[in-house]
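So, can you check what follows?
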Amino acid sequence: MEKISVNQYEPNQKWTDHHKSYIATIAKKANINVLYFDYSSELNNMMGSWNIFLNQNQPAEKILEDFCKLLKIYEDHHKKL
């Protein structure tokens, strides 16, 4: 997977379209779908399609943290294949 630089975000920063765009860019390069919903963040494989679901009701820092953790799990899984 291509390395991507990460900008620093302020704690408790509000979630914006800029953040969504940032995550969308990384997700596209990683070939994974990202969806936002109101429950706990999770990674799953539904019928061969990998998805990261992110809880949109959190501060931007927590959403980005969840995304990075789940992306790492996804990446580790694909290294094993």
Remarks:
- The beta strands are 33-37, 42-46, 49-55.
- The chain has two helices and three strands.
- The helical segments are 17-30, 60-80.
